[in-house]
Every structure is written in C-alpha cells, then in structure tokens.
Amino acid sequence: MLDAMTLAEALTIEDMRTAHERIRPHINRTPVLQSQYLNDLTGAELFFKCENFQEAGAFKVRGACNAVFGLSEEAAQRGVCTHSSGNHALSLSYAAGRRGIPCNVVMPRTAPQAKKDAVRRYGGTITECEPSTSSREAVFAEVQAATGGEFVHPYNDPRVICGQATCSAEMLEQTGGVDAVVAPIGGGGMISGTCLTLSNLAPEVKIYAAEPEQADDAARSFRAGHIIADDAPETIADGLKVPLKENTWHFVSNFVTDVPTVSEQEIVDAMKLTWKYLRVVMEPSSAVPLAAILKNPDLFRGKRVGVIITGGNVDLDRLPWTLG
Amino acid sequence: MLDAMTLAEALTIEDMRTAHERIRPHINRTPVLQSQYLNDLTGAELFFKCENFQEAGAFKVRGACNAVFGLSEEAAQRGVCTHSSGNHALSLSYAAGRRGIPCNVVMPRTAPQAKKDAVRRYGGTITECEPSTSSREAVFAEVQAATGGEFVHPYNDPRVICGQATCSAEMLEQTGGVDAVVAPIGGGGMISGTCLTLSNLAPEVKIYAAEPEQADDAARSFRAGHIIADDAPETIADGLKVPLKENTWHFVSNFVTDVPTVSEQEIVDAMKLTWKYLRVVMEPSSAVPLAAILKNPDLFRGKRVGVIITGGNVDLDRLPWTLG
C-alpha cells in the first residue's frame, strides 16, 4: 500500500470524474441559490451551493457514497465502519443503506439523540463510546476487528476526498465559473476535494478555508507550515472541531489561498442572515464562510464567489439566537 | 372594460406564456426539492416547488412582476399601489423597484416591522392605516387618488393570476409531470394560476387547495357553490386569512378537485417536519399542503405530488415550536 502522502498526491481529476459517475444515482445535484440582499451587503456576487439539501443533510454523502459504491463485492459484504459524532455517521449509514450492506458507527454516548436516530433510520448500527479519544479508539478497534468492515475515515480517506471534489465540479457547471470559493474547514475533506477539482479545472480560482477562531488549528497550521492539532476546541460550529490529517494537509498546504477566521458571534450573525435572506436551514459550520466574507469585504468585493453550504442538520429546538 | 368574471374566463394559456417571458429576467426559476424521508412518511413521491427562494421570499413576485412590467410607459410613470400586510407588499415593491417606478403600499400599522423594513428596502413607500377594513379602504382611496398609481390587487387581478400561473408551468417541466398538485389557498391567486396552467397543459392533474380549519372560507365556499367570506379569521397561517374574490372563485369553482382543511397543530407539525427534513425556511402558510397530505394519505399514496412552498418570510425569533 502506498503511504498516505503519496495517496493524496496521486489523486487526479479523473478520480473525481470516476467518483461523480459512481455517486450520481445516489446524491442530489444540489441547487445554487442567490440572494440580492446578501450580494448588496457584501458587494460580491455570491453563489451558494446548497449541500444541506443532500438527503442526509450534508456534502458528506458524496464521499461516503464514493467509498461505499467503490468497494468490491467481496469487501462490501463485510460492510463499512467509522467513528463520527456527526454528518459522516449519517452519510455513511445512508450510503451503506443504499447499497444494502452493514454500517457500524462508533459514536460518543453524548452525541445528539437526533443524530443517533438518523443513523439508525438509515440502517446503521451504533456502538457507543465515552466522549474521549482513547475510548473512541479502543471501541472502534473492537468493532472493526469483530466485523471486518472497511474503515472509511470521515475526511482523511482519498475516496472520501474524491467524492467531496464533485461538489465544486457541479458548482463550476452551475455558475459558469467563479473568482473564488469559500468553504468551511474542519478536518479538511471538503476543502481538499475543492482543491483537487479547482487546481485542475480552474486553477485561477482562489480557495479560502474559513474557520472559527475558537478552533483555528487549520489557520495556525497554514501559517506554521505543518499540522498543528488543537486539544479539544470548543465552538458552536461543531462540524469543524477535528484536526487536519496528512491527506488533507497536502491539499491545504499546496492549494489554499488563505484561512480566515471568525468569532462565535460572527458565525451566529451570518447564520441568521442566511436563514433570513437565503431561507435555507443550515448548521453553524455552514455560516463560517459568509462570516469570513463579511469580515474581509476587500477580498471579495466585485468578485463572483462560490460559497459552500456544507450541511443542514441542526436542532430546531435550540437555535443559537433563541438561546438565552 | 370587461366585467370581472369575464376577465378570469377570458384568460388563456397564451397569457401565462406571455407573462412567463415578461417576468423571466426578474424572478428565480426556483428549484424542486425532494426528501426521501418525507416520501417514506407519506407513501407519495413529493416534489416541493420552493417559491420561498424568490428574492422577496414568495411566489407573489411572479404576479407582481407581470403586472408591473406589463404597464405601458405612461402608466408606469404614475407607479403602482396596493394594500397588503404581507408578501404582496414586498413583492410589488420589489417589482416596482426593478422597473424603477413608484410603489405605494397601504399597510396596517400593526404589520410586522420586518415586513415594513423589507418594503422600504425595495423602495416602496408605506402609508399606514388602522387594522380594519374601513380604515384600509379609506386610506387606500386617498393614496390612489393622490398618486394616480395603478392598483394591483394581491390576487383578484388577472395579471397577477397569470404571473402565479408560471409557477406550475415550471414545475411541470422540472418534474416531468405529476398526478396531483397541492397548494395553500387564501385569496386564491396561486390556486387560480395553478388551475389556469394545469387545466390547459395537464388537465388530468388533480388540484387540491389546502386551507387552515380556522380560516376555512374557501372550503365552505367550495361546498356551498358560492363565495363565503369569513369575518376576521385567526390562524398561524397568516397569508391565508383573506377571502376569495370573483376572479379566483371562477378558477376554484371550476377546476379545484377538493379543499382539504387542517388544524393549527397539524400546520405547525408539518412546518417543523419540512424545516427538519427538507431543510428550507418556510412560513406556516406553506406547511398547509404537507399537513393536508399527511391527513389524507389515501388520496396521495403512490402518487407523484407537486407541493408548492409559497413563501419563506417568517420571524426567526418567534418560531411556533419555540413559543411557550
């Protein structure tokens, strides 16, 4: 097996195209929405690629479907497994359910009940762990050994990166081209896929990875020139707490233009603006790009800017602006 | 001038096509979204036509744009005027702003501040009245006399009906055809446009006008065979409180299959379901169709059903499921 760095470097635009053909029957070609109000507010022309409208509510179905439907028949029989408290758990369960194979997910017992319910609805099996890295790794090792399932990492897996890469390929087609793309960064799966596609198909497009100040490990890694992992960051953008890994670092370090950061309040404000004027239900992580655009108007004024709305799984009973 | 009944009867599918060409540069071709979860829940294949993604947040920009852009240069100089506390006020202001002509709106002083702000943002001028029919009519007569502006009724105007008719024309193209369409009914503008288009282009499609039990004047009119107007109905679906008028009654009485009604709780439940699983921000009125489908599963099981999400202007600080 090739080492990890080589895997990321070896990915080509043909891998993205193969992924797109493979997953097309299982994903939504999500719409690109615009808002004149938000354009006027930012001075830019914004194109919101709405991945919250994927069936499992997040772009992660792209990578999960590519991994699941790329398995050989023999490997597929043993199913897939992963650890995730969030959208990757739902998405892998969805993909496995579409193929009719087992999916085992290790989730912290403290994960939101709604996420657990969704995993089970899609046919996934949950094994709970304590909310610590050591417990998660120990429990996951047991599950993997017992099932023999194929491990699909939430973002460091090249198959996953190729799946996520299909999102910006659609966006290029739907918009006719942009000057910049802004997406949130957590572990870097979406950003890596965006880099893979744009560096090949539209290398002039600037790529901004937007991040919460309170989980700014990617920004610090970007400036330092090597991966810096935070110790348990806390942010309302709960999809963005995880650190970069070697495959995503390859793309971030080579193709990302900058990593702007935003405060918690800026995230909530941008989230509410988007709900109000674009009228989509999206999670706090998805508001980080608009917050970064509003904070750095000179970077984007007069530009055509793609904004990836990464997901829409949010607790409607606990919206941040209704909490005391 | 022809009398009103004759006006509605005289409308043809060519009027819809003319309207569509006229308004195309000024409206969004809104996407049709689907949710496997909601399909499983209802046993139907649901196609949600998302008019909440119009710039002013509602299908009413279609009718407003058709009226505004159909005016002669001479008439346009005097501008347009209307009375509305809701989406028609925003939409007419938006349309007039696009053409660069004056728009005067009479709104009750009790209308939501957010709606007033939006009217002004689009360039509309508000004259406030007391929240009563007599005050509204008196103030509106003054405004119209002072400005000489063209009155564009929120729904009884044939130009408005033709504009709304473009929505289901797009839906037919986007879905490749449906067995039934369900839309909410208030004054009947959207339903009338739907009838105009479907009775010509797809006469086999059943048309359901869904209505709140607490504002069931259309259901009672439908059964009685003549217009019955409620006296100040009260419902969370605040876009649906207005009565039918002669032009919309023509379509309702001739082309609607049935007028199912739903309770306030059923509306709130359907609204939350749509926010959660379709992940769109839409107002209570727009949840009435899904509530009717859930309440009458036998009518829709196994069918391809178009559902019109009419608007997305809602107070995010006062969502019905977060109120005590």
TrEMBL record, chains A, B:
SUPFAM superfamilies: Tryptophan synthase beta subunit-like PLP-dependent enzymes
Keyword Transcription regulation among UniProt keywords: no
GO biological process: D-serine biosynthetic process
Gene Ontology MF terms in the entry: ATP binding; L-serine ammonia-lyase activity; magnesium ion binding; pyridoxal phosphate binding; serine racemase activity; threonine racemase activity
Superkingdom to which the source organism belongs: Bacteria
NCBIfam families: BHydaspDhtseBhcB
Name the record gives this protein: Serine/threonine dehydratase
